[in-house]
Write a structure and sequence with these properties.
5-stranded antiparallel sheet; 31% helix; 242 residues; 2 domains; binds adenosine-5'-diphosphate; binds thymidine-5'-phosphate; binds aspartic acid; alpha+beta; globular
Length: 242
């Protein structure tokens, strides 16, 4: 598996559940993110491998960052370096996950005691504290201020961007036969500006076929539904036209 960062001896600074981060040579203001085939669910309790996921996710995420850029939304994305590697700006990340939902599914369906697939009257935005040890507990803006997780105005800005992204991605996937059910975003700061970071992939989104409501995302892995690689390939094919 080609990994330019390892070949060039770039310093590995972090290995997470789905990606590895390297400094871009001596340049610590930029990072290489290497997308792995490793898949985890339920806070790492379920582990597996999805063949070619790293390649699919690198390509899908790059295409969606480009789509968003064309609509005026900046991200950490600079360019693709290889099939599994993306060059990005090194940001000061908020330790917060921003989840946006258009339909009930997953933890929201459970929490509210409703079935999955109910269309929400307006999008729901949720904040979670990024902590594997704590299982990413749900928080709100008062936690951000009280625990110094970021500037209130920056988190407000990130929420606004997350909702703008919703309109763009909902429309894009709708035109390509998929419902955008929900997704998770991460943001960071570069030179005082809030920027979208991390990834936008079937690992971090729920997408359903508009007609059959078949799942086309990581829920196929989480719930042992089979056809996992095929689902990622379908999203890859759709986004490769961007
Ligand atoms: P996790 O850390 O949850 O296991 P990953 O394996 O996807 O997830 O690791 C990628 C890590 O890189 C995440 O912790 C994410 O917050 C961080 N990250 C993503 N984009 C950037 C960026 N531009 N600058 C700094 N850190 C980033
Ligand atoms: P949830 O219904 O399990 O809370 O998930 C909501 C969305 O967030 C779904 O699209 C999957 C995504 N997600 C992540 O990307 N990372 C996570 O750790 C979790 C729990 C969810
Ligand atoms: N990313 C989380 C984990 O690795 C949860 C998930 O995506 O289901 O456990």
């Amino acid at each position: 598996m080609k990994n330019i960062s390892e070949e060039k001896g770039f310093k590995k600074i972090y290995e997470g559940k789905a990606k590895i981060l390297y400094f871009y040579g001596n340049d610590e203001s930029r990072l290489v993110t290497y997308f792995k085939d490793d898949a985890t669910a339920f806070n790492g309790q379920k582990k597996g491998t999805i063949m070619k996921k790293g390649e699919f996710n690198n390509a899908i995420s790059s295409s969606l960052f480009k789509l968003l850029k064309s609509k005026g939304i900046d991200s950490h994305f600079i360019e693709n370096l290889s099939e599994r590697e993306m060059l990005v700006h090194h940001l000061k990340m908020f330790p917060v996950e921003f989840v946006v939902r258009n339909f009930t599914a997953g933890s929201l369906a459970k929490k509210m005691g409703v079935e999955e697939g109910v269309k929400l009257l307006s999008p729901v935005v949720e904040l979670y504290f990024k902590s594997d040890e704590l299982g990413d507990p749900m928080i709100n803006e008062t936690y951000v201020k009280a625990f110094d997780l970021g500037e209130t105005k920056d988190v407000e800005e990130a929420k606004k961007i997350a909702l703008n992204i919703n309109e763009i991605l909902k429309d894009f996937f709708d035109k390509n036969g998929l419902l955008l059910v929900d997704y998770k975003l991460e943001f960071g700061i570069l030179n005082g500006k809030v920027l979208l970071a991390d990834e936008i992939t079937p690992d971090t989104m729920r997408l359903w076929d508009k007609i059959t409501l078949e799942k086309v995302d990581k829920d196929r892995f989480r719930r042992d539904l089979g056809g996992v690689e095929e689902a990622y390939k379908r999203v890859y094919d759709i986004t490769s036209n961007i």
